[in-house]
Amino acid sequence: MPRRSFTRRFFPVYLTTILIALLALGLISSRVARNLHLSQIRHDLEIYAHLISSMTGVAAADSAGKTDSLCKALGVSSGIRVTVIAVDGSILGDSHESPLTMENHADRPEIRQALAGHTGSSTRLSPTLQQEMTYVAVPLRDHEQVSGVVRVSMSTALTSQALNSVYVAVGLSSIVIATLTGAAGFVIFHRLRKSLLKVRQGARRLAEGDLSHKLSAPESLEMDELAQTLNLMALQLEERIRTITYQRGEMEAVLSSMIEGVLVFDPEGRVLSMNAAALKLLGVTLPEVRGRSIQEVILNRDFQHFVARVFSERERIEEGLTLRRGAIFVQIQGAPLHDASGRDIGALVVVNDVTRLRRLENLRREFVANVSHELRTPITAIKGFVETLREGGSDPDESARFLDIIARHTDRLNAIIEDLLSLSRLEQDAESGAIQMQSASLKEVIISALQICEHKAIEKSVTCRLETEDESLARINAPMLEQAVVNLLDNAINYSEPGQTVHIGIEKTAAEGIIYVRDEGCGIEEEHIPRLFERFYRVDKTRNRQQGGTGLGLAIVKHITLAHKGNVSVSSTPGQGSTFRIHLPL
Description:
CATH superfamily of the largest domain: PAS domain
CATH class of the largest domain: Alpha Beta
Number of strands: 17
Shape: rod-shaped
Largest sheet: 5 strands, antiparallel
Number of domains: 4
Strand order of the largest sheet: 2-1-5-4-3
CATH topology of the largest domain: Beta-Lactamase
Low-confidence stretches: 58-62, 542-546
Helix content: 40-55%
Radius of gyration: 64 Å
Distance between the termini: 79 Å
Structural class: alpha+beta
Mean pLDDT: 78
């Protein structure tokens, strides 16, 4: 059914109701007027008939001629038809017709009533005059006996003429009333529609989110109350939305700042929300996962099983598992969610990335194992040779050789301890900010390191070549940076063959100065490069120990560079040599 405006829908109903009411009122009033008019005519005719009966005094048939003359005289003077009827129904006199030509009237209803001693009346078509007439008949009495009937009649044409004027007046009045009430109703409906339109427009602006808009007060009290109610509703709604938005912003800020991943599921197991950490851990975006099941979002059977357990067991559970084919270790906790009434509304899963902790734990175990291994070898050797010397029986030359071995292993133990202490001091000073920095030349640091390593390079017939004239200055701790460069040069010399050259210099970019040390040695396999700067990590353990290294030199280089807010990098090609770089901010 097509929708129509308020006026088009209700005004026709209103107008139709008015017209029906006026029509009914006109019909009823016309009928009442007709009945009242006919009743008045009958009353007048009855009075006239009684007057005539008193004048006539007919008692015998021999006075018929006199009676007829009287009837005609009365009819001429009054315009009313007068008829006198004998007891047997014969006509004694009539004002309009000859009695001789008229038929017997004993069967007329008003005559029968009059002969019975009552006043009779009737309205019907007259067979004599061929027009509708109103008849009133009264009895003539002689000594309390009915001796005849006087009947008077009048044509209803006069009544119709009188009533027509009434009908015209009623019709005109109805038209005027209908016009006035229709116009008044149209104005009322139009003003009401305008008020409703203003309220509707204001309500639409509220529905579109403009809650600051205030509805103007219409003229009518009811519309004003409606507008004020909508304004109050908008104010309360705005306050609630502001509160919800603030709370949601707080929650989103908390969730987005969390390093733990948070996943929220509805009772059907579909994803409702994920924070940034969870999206990063799972490698997805929120639009592509919201509203989807866990099986569609995370293709990890263990994770799916864990979420299913949260829903099935309906209690807090915790478990550790791996993601991305073992690349990420996570600790996950799950718990059911309940609303204020205790009804289940979903589940919450918190994912904590413990990959770094796991790796640090592995590094700690490896470090302990490496330290134990590095210390066990010299201690075992020292203990063995000391026991040999204690037992005696060796010649002085052999004892001297044993003492040299003990001294060499003691020096190795001391070097390991010194390097460990250096690393510990570096870490503590870097954390406390105790390392003093000042502007110094990087080239001078390199020259000092070359001077320290010059003797070892000459012994091994390795050439160290300075390849820079750059006098760049940087905020550094010169002794510490010099130690880092010395360690790189020492490694480069150790892994170079006699006759090869170690290149050292400075590269400069807009943001940093880079000290590089490049050798022409055996190079390093790609698989070893990520772990080169770990403590006690060795590419060739046998060769490194033979050359007297502690396995901590590159770790010291890394920590010195980090203390300078820089970083280290390595590029190497097996069989062609390696290049170590220290990146320092300028």
